[in-house]
Every structure is written in C-alpha cells, then in structure tokens.
## 1
Amino acid sequence: MKRHGFVEKDADPAQVYSNVKSLLQTEGFKVTDEETKSNYWDLHARKSSLERIALGKVRDVDVVVAGNKGKFEVQLNAGVWGRDLAIPAIEGIATLGVAPAVELHSAHEFEERMWEQIVHKIDPSLKICQLDGFLFNSEQELQNHIKMHAQQQQASQSSMMNSMLMMGMMGGVGMMGGGMMGGGLWI
Ligand SMILES: [Zn+2]
C-alpha cells in the first residue's frame, strides 16, 4: 500500500483522480465501484476474469484521493489473488508455498510502477523511496532516508518487524501515519 499527502502542489485532486483512473484503464482494469463526494474520490478496479487466470497478476486495485487543491492525500492499494478464489485443488497445493511470495512481489512491482506515474504527474521533481513509496524533495533527502532503512534493518535483524519490512507490507505508513487526512506524511 502506498499513501502520501501533497501540499501546495499545482495539482487538482479531481484531476489526479481522473488521471489514476485512466492509468488503470490503460493497464486493462475495469472500474467496478466508484464513489465521489466533495473532496473525496474512491474507486475499486479489477482485472477481467480471463486475465486473472495468470498467476501472480494483480487482481484488485483500490484508489482513494481526498482533500483540496493545496492539500490532498493519495492512497493506492494493489491486491492479488485472494484465498477465497477457486483455485483448482492440485494447482492450489502445488503453489501453496510459492505463490504468496510471487504474488506479493508482483503486486509490489505494480504498485511501484503505478505510484511513480501518479506521483510524477503531480510533481515530476519528487524522489520516491522504492521500499515504501515515501516522497522526498531532493536526492539528498532520499539518500538519508535510504540510510535509515539500512540502519533499521540492522537493528531489527532478528525481529518479526524485519520480515514484515522485507515484504514491504508495513511500508512505514501503517506505523506512522494516521487515517486518511489524519497525521499522515506530507510533502
Ligand atoms: Zn523508504
């Protein structure tokens, strides 16, 4: 999951939202659910059933844009095959141990690619941390942040947190950020 707040950018959240929507449509997703209120845009998109057959493909994407021009937040969440899906028994057993890693990897890559396009449409000069999608104004700030990741990793080598970090599941946002428009991170 990627989430970040944007302040004083020359971008309209409504415009950001429609850009994300057309990006997803270009990627072959169908918008299945859409909710727009004032200062709040929310969509759920998914791949057609045919395309979902390929293992490891991103299946669902959720996007939320909230706020006004001058201060808004964007959240992107790409999901993979749910455990509830009917996977043929034999294939299910064969891939049980391997699939989650493959799927997570694929979703992570997809998120990274989408996130980069979304962010750079808002502000092409922003630098993106590949590990958690955090944004920085300069290469120097990004490098400092990446150093922090390395230190964190060393400090928590043996803990559970480390494996979660490695899988890109926490992304720091869940730990430090609040709810939408709450005490998240802003740039
Ligand atoms: Zn990072």
## 2
Amino acid sequence: MMIRGCATGAVVLTLLGVGAAIGDAQTGPPAPSVVLDSVAGRDNFERYCASCHGRGGRGDGPVASALRARPADLTTLARRNEGFQRESVRAYVTGADRNPDAHGSEAMPVWGPIFRGLDPSDLRTTQRIDNIVSFIESLQGPSTAASDLGSQLFRTHCATCHGPSGRGGGPMADQLRRMPPDLTQYTARNGGVFPSERVQRIIDGRDVPSHGDREMPVWGDAFQAVRGGTSEQAVKARIDAIVRYLAGIQERAASLDTLRPGHL
Ligand code: HEC
Ligand code: HEC
C-alpha cells in the first residue's frame, strides 16, 4: 500500500468513514466497512473517493499529500482521453481492467470487490458504480477537441443555425424569423461565470414554458426520439456534452472553479 506509515493510514480510514476494519498495511488501501444507504453518485463520491480525489475531483483531497502516488485529477479525463470513456473509467474503478503488476501502483483501491463486500445487492452495487461514474462525468471540464462528443454533436445538430463557431450565421440562419443568437458570450455577459444549468435547460427545452414561437428545436425531445428511443440518461449525457462544449468556446474564459458542480 502506498500510504506512508500507520498514523497516516488511520487518518485515511477515518476520512473514508471506516470503523473497525484496519487491515494489514501491506495488503493494499483500506477497505471501508460502512456502506452508504444512498446510491447517488455525488453522495458516494464524497464518501468513498473525495478523501483522495477531492470533492471536486481534482486530485486534491485531504489525504492526497500522504500518498506516494498522486490521486488523479478526474476532471480532465475527457480531455486526456478523447472524450469521456465511460466504460474504461468504469472498468478502472471496479478494477476489472487493472493489473497491479503491470501498472505498478496500488494506491487506488479496487472498488468492485469493496462495494460488493459492503452491499450484497448486485443491483445496488451496479447502480452505485454507474452513478459514481456519471458523477465523475459531470465533473469534466470544458473540452473543445474535435473528437469530443459535445463538439461532434454541435457540428451535427447546431452549426446549421448557430454557425460552426457558435457565433450565429449558420447556413440555415436566414430562413428563420429570428437570428440564432451568438452562443459564445454567456460567460462575458454573466460576470465570468458560465451559467451551465440555465444553458442546459434552454437546450433541453422540455421544462421551458413554450411561447408557441420557439424556433430552436426542443433537444430533450429530439434526442429522445433518435433511433426509436433513447434512455433519459443518454439524453442528459448528450446535452451535458454540448453544454461542456459551449463552456469551452466562450469568448471570455471562465475561471475553472466556476465550472465545478453546483455550477456545472
Ligand atoms: C486512497 C486514495 C484513493 C481513493 C479513496 C480513491 N482513489 Fe482513485 N486514484 C487514487 C490514486 C493514487 C490514483 C492514481 C493511480 C495511479 O497513478 O496508478 C487514482 C486513480 C483513479 C482513476 C484513474 C484516473 C486516470 O487518470 O485514468 C479513477 C477513474 C479513479 N481513481 C476513480 C476513483 C473513484 C471513483 C473512487 C471512489 C469510489 C476513488 N478513485 C477513490 C487514489 C484513490
Ligand atoms: C433550426 C435552427 C436552430 C438549430 C438547429 C439550433 N438552434 Fe439554438 N436557437 C435557434 C434560434 C432561432 C434561437 C433563438 C430563440 C428561438 O427563437 O427559439 C436559438 C436559441 C438558442 C439558445 C439560447 C440563446 C440565448 O439567447 O440564451 C441556445 C443555448 C441554443 N440555441 C443552443 C443550441 C444548441 C446547443 C443546438 C444544437 C443541439 C441548437 N441551438 C440548434 C435556432 C436553432
């Protein structure tokens, strides 16, 4: 295990919300012995991951400095891997794809067996891990790489009206009664904060009262209808990816802090 010394180990255990299960210091990171009733992603991330990765996922949790391997910054996974690779993140977290000999690091607990040991329900364990992965996805900073999902969706569905740069004036723009607005000014107009939740709601459109003359498609419905129906989670993931893309193309860059949960 990569934690230096027993005293630090005890700190980690306390921060993980661990009761009695202080194992052999040579067998890997401590396994928490207390299961959280909630399977919500944020709750579980805060309980089981934030001590090392930090509440915002940036690798700056309270015990990070006591570890020999720095906990990864989980907010840059999408940027570092050409989009958020949900399946490989999941496999890494559960340990399905990890071979400690090959990677030479045992600092990151293998969560699959830990969660299964804590909660006998396979269904809840699967949900817990899926929700944690979704929460990590929600932490991703803006990404504008061409291969990024948000960028691809924007080119496919939005650029016809809003233009390839998001500034308006796409090829369909002059057939509309209203000019599609410039989407790169939110942060500038909003005191340096990108209003993620508002933009998300506008794009989704399903809970925005209809005035009957909206020219912008209701993307919550449109994405749901793709190929005969998509899950609500998939619809949300697409809209989130677009919102992250828009956050990334703002003319005035927002400070990264304002893009963390609560805002994003
Ligand atoms: C005891 C500290 C610790 C805890 C608790 C912890 N991690 Fe980690 N995690 C690490 C370290 C250290 C690394 C970097 C491992 C390496 O470099 O080999 C890491 C790496 C990762 C990575 C890989 C990131 C990348 O860059 O590919 C993911 C994903 C991850 N952790 C998710 C989680 C999740 C989800 C939880 C909670 C269920 C969690 N971690 C709890 C220490 C921790
Ligand atoms: C058919 C043309 C068209 C397409 C395609 C389109 N929009 Fe729009 N959009 C508009 C128009 C026009 C408006 C102005 C409001 C209205 O008339 O509905 C607008 C408004 C918006 C707004 C609100 C702007 C503000 O002033 O706050 C956002 C955000 C937005 N669009 C994002 C998107 C995204 C993201 C996509 C792709 C998923 C998209 N739009 C696709 C035409 C379009």
